[in-house]
Design a protein that fits this description.
This protein is α/β, with parallel strands linked by helices and about 900 residues long. The chain is built from 29 helices and 38 strands.
Length: about 900
């Protein structure tokens, strides 16, 4: 379930309190007092088996005796009673409950089932949604709902707070009330047996009373649902998160470098980033960030220009900026010229711009005018410390008109003497802070939010070096190892898997003994590298199992014999399976990187990139990302490491071939998508230089796939299995799901469609869509929506889009809304019918209940197609619009298909 029946939880018309009490300091007494005092306008029904009256209200003995089925029930009774109460509520017609009771997960019934599972089983037949158990409750201040045992109420506002921490649910409303901060919703998830982060995000994403969503996360269970809901919500409004547990008490022992490096907090960070949310470290930063995002204009980078009337605060701001990963903007010659004209000769002549302590208001304005026009600055930080020369309020009044129209953040550094200046800026919507560090933190939050939002809409380029993986060959290697009961592939086997995905690997041969190793080395040509081969050895260098630059057969023979002795001494139980002999790769200016795959228990496979080599865990320079990756996401992954700056080249080392490096990451991502048996992968080192990349060593651990295919991924990958080729009026068409890379050709498709056809599709006049709008059409969540396009090769050989049919399902998959558009010169040839039938088949396979759409009454061609496909046609909400609907019962067939010529 997702949002089904959540309206009864968050917008009930009546509330029952089961377990209401008059006993002082009890949960039941606190809840009924809060519900009555909240100002809720609907009926409130206390339920207590022993009392006829509670808190001055008539009380009812049980659920059956209530005068009506309450929309929402708040349950505060002992654990053993909860399942039967939920069953009674569901049978009566209640569709939502807040279960405050703790201990259901630990307690069990006579059959050994946890009471939480029994409760869920009781709720499921009635589609009754449950918040909790073990939660503090729910507040919706705008509706006067305080269905909690919090010690205070919350002010109404437009920010939603969702927390897994009961303590925060009681502390934050108190803290926020003292600062005048209000909430649209305040939700304690507790054990989240039913309603979880994904459900709440889906509901709040479309809630008009909620402007921003704040999350306090301790853990996530349903990763794919969470990611889909978070990505959808973050497209509509700011979503900010605190994830507790950045530093674990201890790290589990990991068999691979990747497993040791990719800690769970890194994975949460990657997930939050991929979803377009903003992560902060504290609850206070949550509220600071949402205030900043609501007031400040969007920024497009991390370059900051700083102006100050005191040198010290400028230095403090610079320190905070650089430590936080931001950059000082480099001032242009034109900006320096303008500042020279406006400022005394003693000004700092750089960024930060110190305008000197005796600055009058005019100097502030002139400096601000120069900096807001600086093309290299993404924002300006205005810092003022009080002086006796000129009143701060006078400076604020002079600068506010310019500051409010530009990307300006302010710091009024001082106490009460600056209150009027702060108020002047606040009245104009200019974000202002108490200290330089707070102001810089606000700027970095803006930059981070913008960066994460860009990942939702950035269009990846198509790979110039196309690769077609040989997935069958890779599966053969993996399945052969599993059939032999092996988890670890040998190094040559691992390299065969990589080579099947187009990843360059060094030529490697296997030798059974020292003599054979010497003969193979002679065949390959000297010098060579020799490595030990043992299923018990994870990192070969730990047992002296690597020898480089061997120049003769005798050196190879001696190195192999020495490795065998060391293995026997250091790991007496280890089996010597032989040796690998490799060509010696001489790329002295190459960088050693690591590319890896690890399995996260929550989010599934993750991909790691960083600085490689034997000291990889000591250096700990890495970043992780969730698959699937495209070239844009691979580029972002690399950019988040320290080694990225070295890869750009320095001194006599040229820049590496970034395209080859990014492509290798995409190839590893595809490997992960295709091979669910891959549990861990290390490519260390993957050499990268101006000539490309090559894998020198690889380690791959496999396991029988517990979850089939793409289902184990937190983000559903491109469903290649849905591609099909068909003949169409003498041309070959490909009907396939849309991809992010399709944005340019989708724009060309719309350009070749008549204005009237676009109006019939979009219900308004359409000129040219922006990049953000096009990205929304091409970068879809395949788990919730689908867009099939018909593509063919144009005269120049490039793909062109001829038509598109899309459907967006509600989170419960009860209904999907569809739309279709065919290029104007191809109408009437049957292409629309082909696309619609494919879409209908897909929706039926996804068990979507019905397909609906709005059609202009004048759109005769579309209405005729709808009738042919079996849609029902009824009046819509507008006289000019009709509603078409097709029920999709499971197992029913699609109407008989016609050929493209209509026969």
């Amino acid at each position: 379930m997702t949002i089904r029946n959540l309206e009864f939880l968050f917008r009930p018309k009546s509330i029952a309190v089961i377990g209401a009490s008059d006993r002082q300091a009890s949960v039941g007494a606190t809840v009924v007092r809060n519900v009555l005092a909240g100002g809720f306008s609907g009926p409130i029904y206390p339920v207590n088996v022993h009392r006829a009256e509670i808190a001055g209200q008539r009380a009812y003995r049980d659920v059956a005796s209530l005068p009506e089925a309450p929309d929402l029930a708040v349950v505060a009774t002992p654990p053993a009673t909860v399942p039967d109460i939920i069953n009674a509520l569901g049978a009566r017609g209640t569709r939502a409950a807040v279960v405050l009771t703790a201990g259901l997960a630990a307690a069990s019934d006579g059959a050994g089932r946890s009471l939480m599972q029994v409760m869920l089983g009781a709720a499921r037949p009635h589609l009754l949604r449950g918040l909790g158990p073990n939660c503090v409750g729910l507040l919706v201040p705008g509706l006067g709902i305080n269905a909690s045992f919090a010690h205070t109420s919350a002010l109404p506002g437009n920010v939603a707070f969702v927390s897994q921490s009961g303590g925060l649910t009681t502390a934050v409303p108190d803290w926020a009330r003292s600062r005048g901060i209000g909430f649209s919703h305040f939700i304690s998830l507790g054990d989240a047996a039913d309603v979880d982060f994904g459900d709440v995000l889906d509901y709040l994403a479309s809630d008009p009373s909620t402007r921003a969503i704040l999350l306090y996360i301790e853990s996530v269970c349903a990763a794919r649902k969470f990611m889909s809901a978070a990505r959808a919500a973050a497209r509509n409004k700011p979503v900010l998160a605190v994830k507790a547990g950045r530093v674990p008490e201890g790290a589990r022992a990991a068999a691979s470098h990747t497993g040791a490096l990719a800690g769970s907090d890194d994975v949460y960070d990657a997930a939050i980033r991929r979803a377009g949310m903003l992560r902060v470290d504290t609850v206070l930063e949550l509220f600071d960030a949402v205030e900043t995002l609501s007031r400040a204009k969007p920024v497009y980078g991390d370059r900051l220009a700083i102006m100050t009337n005191g040198g010290g605060p400028g230095v403090m701001a610079t320190d905070a900026l650089v430590r936080g990963g931001g950059r000082l903007a480099s001032l242009s010659v034109e900006s320096l010229r303008r500042l020279d004209q406006a400022l005394p000769a003693t000004w700092s002549h750089g960024n930060p711009v110190d305008i000197i302590g005796d600055a009058p208001a005019e100097r502030y304005v002139a400096t601000l005018e120069a900096l807001v026009q600086e093309p290299a600055a993404d924002a300006v930080l205005f810092i003022h410390v009080p002086t006796a020369i000129v009143a701060a309020a006078e400076i604020a009044r002079a600068c506010a008109p310019l500051a409010k129209s530009a990307r300006v953040l302010a710091c009024w550094l001082g106490g009460g003497a600056l209150d009027e200046a702060r108020r002047i800026f606040a009245d104009e919507g200019i974000p202002a802070y108490q200290t330089p560090e707070e102001a810089v933190a606000g700027f970095l939050q803006l930059a981070g939010y913008r960066r994460n939002q860009q990942t939702l809409v950035e269009t990846p380029s198509s790979a110039a070096r196309e690769f077609v993986p040989d997935a069958a060959a890779a599966r053969g290697v993996v399945r052969a190892a599993l059939s032999e009961g092996r988890e670890l592939l040998s190094e040559p086997e691992a390299k065969r898997v990589l080579a099947a995905y187009g990843i360059p690997v060094v030529k490697t041969r296997v030798a059974a003994n020292a003599e054979e190793a010497a003969r193979i080395a002679h065949t390959l040509g000297f010098p060579v590298a020799l490595k030990i081969l043992s299923p018990q050895v994870t990192h070969k260098s730990d047992v002296g199992g690597v020898a480089l630059d061997l120049a003769s057969e005798s050196e190879v023979r001696a190195a192999a014999e020495a490795m065998a002795r060391r293995l026997a001494e250091r790991l007496p139980g280890a089996v010597l399976a032989g040796f690998t002999v490799q060509e010696m790769v001489r790329r002295p200016r190459a960088h050693e990187t690591i590319v890896g795959v690890a399995a996260d228990p929550v989010f599934g496979p993750v991909i790691l990139f960083g600085q490689g080599g034997v000291a990889v865990e000591v250096v700990a320079d890495r970043a992780v990302a969730l698959p699937p990756l495209n070239l844009a996401l691979a580029k972002d992954l690399v950019s988040r490491t320290r080694i990225a700056r070295l890869l750009d080249g320095y001194r006599d080392r040229p820049p590496v071939d970034r395209e080859a490096l990014h492509l290798a990451l995409v190839q590893v991502s595809q490997l992960v998508v295709d091979l669910p048996e891959v549990a861990e992968l290390d490519i260390n080192p993957l050499l990268a230089d101006e000539r490309g990349v090559i894998a020198l060593d690889a380690r791959l651990r496999v396991a029988p796939a517990a979850i089939r295919g793409a289902d184990r991924l937190a983000i559903r990958p491109y469903p290649q299995e849905l591609e099909e080729r068909i003949g169409f009026h003498g041309r070959e068409l490909v009907l396939r799901p849309i991809r992010p890379e399709d944005e340019p050709q989708h724009a060309r498709f719309l350009d070749r469609t008549d204005a009237e056809d676009l109006r019939l599709r979009f219900f308004h006049t359409v000129r040219r869509l922006s990049h953000t709008e096009l990205a929304r059409f091409t970068q879809i969540d395949y788990d919730r929506e689908m867009a099939f396009i018909a593509v063919a090769r144009g005269e120049g050989g490039d793909e062109e889009t001829l038509g598109v049919a899309r459907a967006i399902a509600d989170p419960d998959r009860t209904c999907a809304e569809f739309a279709i558009l065919v290029r104007s010169d191809l109408k009437g040839k049957g292409l629309g019918a082909l696309l619609m039938r494919k879409l209908i088949r897909y929706c039926r396979e996804r068990e979507i209940g019905e397909l609906v759409g709005d059609v202009f009454a004048t759109n005769a061609r579309m209405l005729a197609l709808a009738r042919d496909l079996g849609f029902e046609i009824a009046p819509g909400g507008d006289l000019e619009v009709l509603r078409v609907r097709l029920a999709l019962p499971a197992g029913a067939g699609t109407p008989v298909e016609r050929a493209p010529d209509g026969t």
